[in-house]
Write a structure and sequence with these properties.
Chains A, B: Its cofactor is Mg(2+). Chain A is built from three helices and twelve strands; from the N terminus they run E-E-E-E-E-E-E-H-E-E-E-E-E-H-H. Chain A is an alpha+beta fold. Chain A has two domains: 35 residues, no CATH class; 137 residues, Nucleoside Triphosphate Pyrophosphohydrolase (Alpha-Beta Complex). The first copy, chain A, has a four-stranded mixed sheet. In chain A, strands 1-2-3 form a three-stranded antiparallel sheet, with no helix packed on it. In chain A, helix 2 crosses helix 3.
Chain lengths: 180, 180
């Protein structure tokens, strides 16, 4: 079966700072047409970092689309031309003051593939050293440390409301359970 | 610390079929201002359903923002006023032809909190019966069945590129490992 939806007509709605918005008229596999709304984004990276004391470093920050704060693993947008591993190392150090000596790759996921192409690469590390914190000028974050039992409880009680953070926490629990 | 970013000025960029786009000029905690782009979405649901034969039901569909197909657990948008559990039951039956007698709640997560308020509720069920498939007229999906070892391999090999599906798979592996 050929699922492809070919663009017949495309309209640029908005070219912004972190997103571009397009409207596509597409032809469907059955010959009909449909409207598709597309939010383009350059991509992002996130890091689940474990300190020598066995604590995962999280950041609490205000997320304007939600109008409230969210607890997340450190994350950020790719700079133009930047590779994903370098971006992940940079974001971790900027937001937490810890530098990763190495990263393990958990996976690359689309958070909202129905309307956006944002691909987020998620990494894990317990190989970190002190570096230098350096937030963007419009960035305000508060670091929070979670123990493995905090993570276990947060997952069980469905308290994690961020997709990349839940993926990272479940990964940590799987790694922990497998090594028991 | 008060993280709130109050809107000083708001501009509506686009009011579409599944998304609305807004631009906010906000005041930051340090008194400066910044631009925030916000994609509003009504919310979504997804279901990881296990057949009596122990297989997870996935659907392969073309995702226009990615310009390729993606393998995902069945999911869909909330209808206006619809509660999340009913929406999850409806989407599962429409896309797979299976009806859930009950659902367990895995969690509610934001897929891209940096620019969108889309909240996706993820459920798990192994309590299903035959129902009636009924796709939307612009929806083309192909069902695929994964065994638990397919899931284990897909997670290990980082082959799952959809956030909600990776969360559901990791959940299944955690449940399975805990019950061993």
């Amino acid at each position: 079966m050929n699922f492809e939806e070919k663009t017949i007509e495309k309209e640029s709605i908005y070219q912004g700072r972190i997103i571009d918005v397009e409207k596509h008229l597409v032809s469907l596999p059955n010959g009909e047409t449909a409207l598709r709304e597309v939010v383009k984004h350059n991509g992002a990276v996130a890091v689940c970092a474990v300190t020598p004391e066995g604590k995962v470093i999280l950041v609490k920050q205000f997320r304007k689309p939600l109008e409230h704060t969210l607890v997340e693993i450190p994350a950020g947008k790719l700079e133009p031309g930047e590779d994903r591993v370098s971006a992940a190392m940079r974001e971790l150090e900027e937001e937490t003051g810890y530098r990763a000596r190495s990263l393990q790759h958990i996976g690359d996921v689309y958070g909202t593939p129905g309307f956006s192409n944002e691909l987020i690469s998620i990494y894990f590390t317990d190989d970190i050293e002190k570096g230098e914190m350096n937030l963007d000028e419009d960035e305000f974050v508060e670091p929070i440390l979670y123990s493995l039992s905090d993570i276990e409880n947060a997952v069980k009680n469905r308290e994690i409301n961020d997709a990349k953070t839940l993926i990272a926490f479940q990964h940590a629990l799987l790694v922990y359970n497998h090594s028991k």
